[in-house]
Write a structure and sequence with these properties.
262 residues, alpha/beta, Rossmann fold, 7-stranded mixed β-sheet, 4-stranded antiparallel β-sheet
Length: 262
């Protein structure tokens, strides 16, 4: 591994309810970054971060694991924390060391007690965060419902960045809400595609939620928003960068850990 200066190091903590998919997300990141040549599974006891015998036996995380990943000239230390409350001390220690958080939500289970605890920790330590919804390859997972529940619970700071494209009960691609473009997987490659008609109602809902979140970032934007104006993609991205850092916008994304897609 290369030597990195502090400005090229990021400590990112994964938070969420037990079984939400933090360890499998870490595994997918490690695989895509080339740290490991095969995808391990929690059920097989061969993941990168759950290496302890008790963790493998119980199929849960007990200790916080640090998995360093090199990506685009930056070293990202992924802190995979336990989801069960018996090990909350491990979680709090990891949060204190982190500069940002990813709150992982199981797409089938939705917002759980562990999700709320994760949010409270981010508020306590003023951590920038984004929400990642797993299991988009599972038919009864509802991304739209989770976005609506998050917005109801945490307000207009919730900003969905992506929507899943599903066909014949399969997760085949995603819509970028910021740029309003469609993307589809062909093998391991991502190619542009038309946004399916059945995605457009959800895109309008998520786009409106995103515009509300951007409008909340300044009085000038608020006036333009209520005046019926739309924001350009460059304006949206500029607002997002500043306001994600200060926590006034919380992006929401989604994917499938087991398929390494998202």
């Amino acid at each position: 591994m290369n030597i990195y200066t502090t400005d090229k190091i990021r400590n990112v903590v994964l938070l969420g309810h037990g079984g939400s998919g933090k360890t499998s997300l870490t595994e997918a990141m490690a695989y895509l970054a080339g740290i490991t040549s095969r995808m391990g599974k929690v059920t097989d006891g061969n993941t990168v971060s759950d290496y302890g015998k008790e963790e493998q036996k119980r199929q849960i995380s007990i200790n916080t694991s640090v998995v360093p990943i090199e990506w685009n000239g930056v070293k990202i230390n992924i802190l995979d924390t336990p989801g069960y409350f018996d090990f909350v001390g491990e979680v709090e220690e990891a949060v204190k060391a982190a500069g940002a958080a990813i709150i992982v939500i199981n797409g089938k289970s939705g917002i759980e007690v562990g999700t709320e605890k994760a949010w409270e920790l981010c508020e306590k330590y003023k951590l920038p965060r984004f929400v990642y919804v797993t299991n988009m390859d599972v038919d009864n997972a509802s991304y739209r419902q989770i976005v609506e529940d998050l917005k109801e619970k945490y307000g207009k700071k919730i900003a969905p960045f992506n929507l899943p494209i599903r066909e014949n009960e399969h997760f085949v691609g995603y819509v970028n809400v910021v740029s309003e473009t469609g993307n589809r997987w062909q093998g391991k490659e991502v190619v542009s595609c038309e946004i399916p008609d059945y995605n457009r109602p959800n895109l309008e809902i998520c786009r409106e939620t995103l515009m509300e979140a951007v409008a909340e970032t300044s009085e000038a934007f608020m006036e333009r928003y209520f005046g019926g104006e739309t924001f350009s993609e460059s304006e949206i991205r500029a607002a997002l960068r500043t306001n994600v850092i200060d926590g006034s916008i919380v992006p929401v994304s989604m994917g499938s850990n087991t398929l390494c897609q998202g």
